[in-house]
Predict the structure.
Amino acid sequence: MIIIGLTGSIGMGKTTTAALFAAEGIPVYDSDRVVHDLYRGEAVALVEAAFPGTVIKGQVDRQKLSETLAKNPANFKRLEGIVHPLVRMREREFLAEQQQQGQPIVLLDIPLLFETGADGRVSVIVVVSCDQEIQEKRVLTRPGMSKEKLQLILARQMPDSEKRARADFVVDTGVSIDDAKRQVKSILATLRNHRLSTEMTDHA
């Protein structure tokens, strides 16, 4: 089974690109969505114990958590220590299920793929990217976002240039959805052809 690791900095169009892979029939594991689920379930008591006052009405309030994290950068590591093991467990369950179903290609959508060492768990790395001006324009339209907040987020992420250098494939989302769709189809065609040729060699 080929495991694609999809990543990209904030505002690069990663969510849209993941949806394009899903539209091509590729099962997608969305680690952000898993974190949202955990903040309503398994992680609630653990986060409240570590960061009192961040849970409201039985679920982690992301805004309050953000404010708490911003006060002390060391808090990020503490939060990751709580959340990452739970996310990894869900990821393993997803992969086992897809393997059982005989899926040839799956995709792990992991925003901090390189930063958390998850790049060692995938077969192929796809980085989503675009020009910095487009990235900023997209991010600053989000509610509650400011240039300062964007800089804080980017400071925790590997620079885009380094991600691109470490990628097997880059999807540039700066032109149009149709153009990104064409790039996704091309990547999948390459991976499928490689898989077929490997299988033929194995059976030869």
